[in-house]
Design brief:
Number of domains: 2
Number of helices: 14
Structural class: alpha/beta
CATH class of the largest domain: Alpha Beta
Helix content: 25-40%
CATH superfamily of the largest domain: Glycosidases
Shape: globular
Strand content: 15-25%
Largest sheet: 8 strands, parallel, barrel
């Protein structure tokens, strides 16, 4: 994730009144960065208990904000935040690459379980090529692939990378992804903006030998096209790999915020960015969107409204027009709020609030992802207050993915209410299903009076819960008269069932 500019209990969301109409479906997520311990764990070598508690604190905080997803970095530098036979444990986790947590636990399995308890989707974030974010080879475990197959790696600047040109690189990345999708109950695979690395001044990426050996029909003056083709191949292969194992698992990319400048391409944006996806990172994100190689896109729009070289307002309009019908979420730079070294807009008002307000004007924008996860919770310039009081006042379902077909969820049955003088609990039959039909969570709606109103209106959502019961004592406090309840189910395809038979009770 590029940070600079051009360089235990189940939490329940109880509804209240927002300042404006909220969508019922909206992606609300945070990137949880593990590289260099940006977000989690706060430092290497914490005990298992400390690591788990830190993660629970993050998840509880996100749930309290009515967020519904995390993007969790599990492979920052060709290492693993999960038990893997392909790559070693990350030194960002335990302080030594290859050393497992003690007492042993699997962080990814833990995160998936705890997040899903809270009805939070888990998008696992991998970097395809970065191997070492320094030149300190001594950090690497002796069993690392770097030593077993050194021909797969190149040094560029002071970092090491898999060579994207090699068939063996693509095969290995596919193997890693297939292993994760097979063994873990994740909701998506997520890549960020690091494909070919950001340019190092006066240094050519060392792939001339690979080009000479396997140009694949590209001429010497088409080397940039060849590099883009290298990335295109792995993206298309990964989509096929993921869908062949679990068709409901999404594949998303969060690219650098500028595809191309208009001066270089008629489809480009009215920007003058010094770095672009297409020309410097060799990532043709529009091709992937147009061909359906990815399911969603999260452009990192980390600039303020009005920035001369890359205006947020210009770019969100551009991405709204060039998403090719795929789900579009916007990457927002929470870490920059209050940064006195940045443009005045980041200190003289809440720039992200302005951006969120602007986002509402674009029909193809279906949510936002915040970098970084820890920074989001610092309530810089009152951002969290704005989210809780306005933008995320009500719970929301994650959007259905337009790129993925799937079956409808089964209808909940036998809704009933148990009521005493001091407590009230709704219950319904648990739905047993497998594969993409598996129920992820249930949505409970309430309406004043007799009869059901619109379940498409978010203000009617009482809670989203992973359990087939819900304590509504707090919700019903001070309420008098008749209320009607209904429940729906949402499966792994994110499809919502028809509503259960209504239940009307007097309080």
């Amino acid at each position: 994730m590029k940070k600079h500019l051009f360089t235990t209990g189940l939490a329940i969301c109880i509804a209240a009144t927002p300042l404006f109409a909220q969508p019922k479906r909206e992606f609300r997520a945070a990137w949880i960065a593990t590289v260099a311990n940006i977000d989690w764990p706060t430092r290497p070598g914490l005990s298992t208990e400390q690591q788990q508690q830190e993660m629970i604190n993050l998840l509880d905080a996100y749930k309290a904000l009515n967020m519904n997803a995390i993007v969790f970095q599990i492979r920052p530098t060709a290492d693993a935040f999960y038990q893997s036979e392909l790559e070693p444990w990350s030194h960002f986790l335990t302080g030594k690459q290859g050393l497992a947590p003690e007492p042993f636990y699997d962080p990814l399995a833990f995160v998936v379980e705890e997040a899903h308890k809270r009805c939070i989707d888990v998008h696992v974030w991998l970097n395809p090529y970065r191997t070492l974010n320094s030149d300190k080879i001594e950090i690497l475990n002796p069993d690392h692939l770097f030593f077993k197959k050194p021909h797969l790696f190149v040094k560029y600047g002071n970092q090491y990378y898999f060579n994207p040109a090699l068939d063996e690189t693509r095969q290995f990345v596919n193997k890693v992804v297939a292993d994760i999708v097979t063994r873990y109950d994740i909701d998506a695979i997520h890549f960020d903006d690091y494909f070919y690395p950001y340019k190092v001044k006066n240094e050519e990426f060392p792939d001339s030998a690979a080009f000479a050996e396997n140009p694949r029909g590209f001429s010497p003056d088409q080397k940039d096209d060849w590099r883009r083709n290298n990335v295109n191949l792995v993206i298309a292969e990964l989509q096929n790999t993921i869908k062949s194992i679990k068709p409901w698992v999404e594949f998303g990319i969060s690219p650098f915020g500028v595809w191309r400048n208009a001066k270089d391409d008629p489809r480009g944006s009215a920007t003058t960015a010094g770095t672009t996806n297409y020309d410097q990172l060799y990532a043709d994100i529009l091709k992937w969107l147009e061909e359906g190689s990815i399911d969603y896109v999260v452009p990192q729009l980390y600039w303020e409204i009005g920035k001369k070289v890359a205006d947020y307002a210009v770019l969100i309009d551009w991405w709204n027009n060039y998403n090719y019908g795929k789900n579009l979420y916007i990457g927002l730079y929470a870490s920059n709020l209050g940064n006195k070294k940045a443009a005045p807009a980041w200190c003289e008002g809440n720039e992200l609030v302005r951006q969120l307000e602007l986002n509402k004007n674009y029909k193809n924008v279906q949510g936002a992802v915040y970098f970084s996860g820890k920074a989001l919770l610092e309530n810089k310039l009152g951002l969290n207050d704005s989210l809780k009081e306005s933008f995320y006042k009500y719970p929301a379902l994650v959007p259905v993915n337009s790129n993925i077909k799937g079956e409808a969820a089964a209808q909940p049955q036998k809704l009933k209410l148990t009521k005493t003088k001091t407590a009230a609990e709704l219950r319904w039959n648990k739905i047993e299903a497998e594969g993409g039909k598996t129920i992820m969570y249930y949505v409970v709606y309430a309406f004043e009076g007799k009869g059901i109103g619109s379940i498409e209106d978010a203000k009617n959502i009482v809670a989203i819960t992973a359990d087939n019961r819900l304590d509504i004592t707090d919700f019903m406090k001070d309420k008098k008269g008749k209320y009607t309840f209904t429940v729906t189910a949402v499966n792994k395809y994110k499809h919502e069932s028809v509503a259960s038979k209504p239940l009307t009770k007097r309080f």
